Amino acid sequence: MDRNDSFREFVAAHQQALMRTAYLLAGDAPQAEDLLQSVLLKVLGRWSRLSRIEHPEAYARKALVNQYISWRRRRVTTEFLTAEPPDRPYSSEDSTVARLVMRQALMRLPPRQRAVIVLRYYEDRTERETAELLNCSLGTVKSQTHYALARLRALAPELAPKLADMEAEEANR
Q: Does pTM top 0.70 for this prediction?
């Protein structure tokens, strides 16, 4: 099998999971697609070496997080997010609204805190895996998680029960 075929197989097997992570980090589909595309180009350039390692998807995921943080440092924000929910009435049990509120709150977190929340709770990574992916200490992951959850609680008080469940799950790990 040549290099291109093995890379195509890698992309076919992992694109959906990497896209989900990119979407959670970037917050919208077009930016997520751009983010994933730029990372896959970098992975392709290094594929001759990466194809020989045990978990090339871990490298791709780490590159995705690093690229996202790098983009956020350079990007000038022209979006205006509002803290107000939609005007229509909704039930606090409405999971669609809860997801939208959580997404809006996630978008208002600093890049490192958002990356920690995405990796820990959406990707279900351990603290150690998250620290490795972010190239930081275990203590940094713990403190960033703490600060991010506190910020989410302040940004979206209606999500407090969900955030409490996330913290309880964290305590039981």
A: no
